[in-house]
Amino acid sequence: MTLLTAVFLLLASIALAQEPRSSLPEPAGDVLLTVTGDIAIKNSEDAALFDRAMLEALGAETIETSTVWTDGVHAYTGVPLDTLLDHLGVEEGALYATALNDYAVEIPVSDAIKGGPVVAFDVDSAPMSVRDKGPLWLIYPFDANPDYRSEVIYSRSIWQLVRIEVESGP
Q1: In this structure, are residues 162 and 138 in contact, taking their beta carbons and an 8 Å threshold?
Q2: Torsions phi, psi of 12, nearest 5?
Q3: 141 with 67: CB under 8 angstroms?
Q4: Alpha-carbon span 38 to 94, nearest angstrom
Q5: What is the mean pLDDT of the chain?
Q6: E-strand spans in 90-149?
Q7: How far is it, in rounded angstroms, from Cα 67 to Cα 65?
Q8: What confidence tens digit (pLDDT) does each residue in 25-62 have?
Q9: What is the phi/psi pair of residue 26, to 5°?
Q10: Cα 27 from chain centroid?
Q11: Where is the signal peptide (predicted)?
Q12: Residue 107 and residue 153: Cα distance in Å, rounded?
């Protein structure tokens, strides 16, 4: 990581931490994730737009897990799904996640728990390219919890994630 990148990430982290919970800064880099629907916090007319630095500033965590799509155990770093949703004021309902290729899946907000899935942007300390399931992959810690090793959860592990629409519960 260059010194300039480190300074930028530090400043973005400070700016995000200083933002009142009722606002979200504008993305300075390429938008990686767009969240729409029933969210309390937005930075555009009808959405919360996140670049990489904004996602990192929410508090990145690393999970180590194997997957059915990769060989061996890898370290996936990203923002925990519960942290992202908490920041946006989402407490219940469903997430409709969409990938670059328009693959879409419904994920209950109840999946967003401490120690649960992360919106990963790095694998083994390197940014994920589109070719390697990036730039974002919602990945569950499969090795940490046998309940995550099911076809339903595998279907929710959406890679090349670009959009999430939030629909609150009844």
Answers
A1: no
A2: -65, -40
A3: no
A4: 10
A5: 90
A6: 94-99, 104-108, 118-123, 126-127, 137-139
A7: 7
A8: 999 999 999 999 999 999 999 999 999 999 999 999 99
A9: -75, 145
A10: 15
A11: 1-17
A12: 9
Question: Options 3.90.420.10, 3.40.50.150, 2.60.40.1220, 3.90.650.10; which CATH number does 3-167 get?
Answer: 3.90.420.10
Report the pLDDT value the prediction gives residue 116, as an integer from 0 to 100.
Answer: 97
Report the DSSP beta bridge partners of residue 120: 78, 137
Please return the burial class of 135, using the count of CB atoms within 10 Å of its CB with bins 0-12, 13-18 and 19+.
buried
Average pLDDT score over residue span 93-113: 98
- According to DSSP, the residues that pair with 31 across neighbouring strands are 51
For the chain, the domains span: 3-167
Say if residue 131's pLDDT is above 60.
yes
3 state DSSP class of 26: coil
Overall residue count recorded for the chain in this entry:
170
Q: Which residue is associated with the tokens 């670059």? A: 100
Structural tokens at position 11: 């400043």
Cis peptide leading into residue 25 (ω within 30°): no
User: Quick one: which H or E segment has residue 34?
Assistant: strand 31-37
Among candidate residues 147, 122, 141, the one with its CA nearest the CA of residue 133: 122
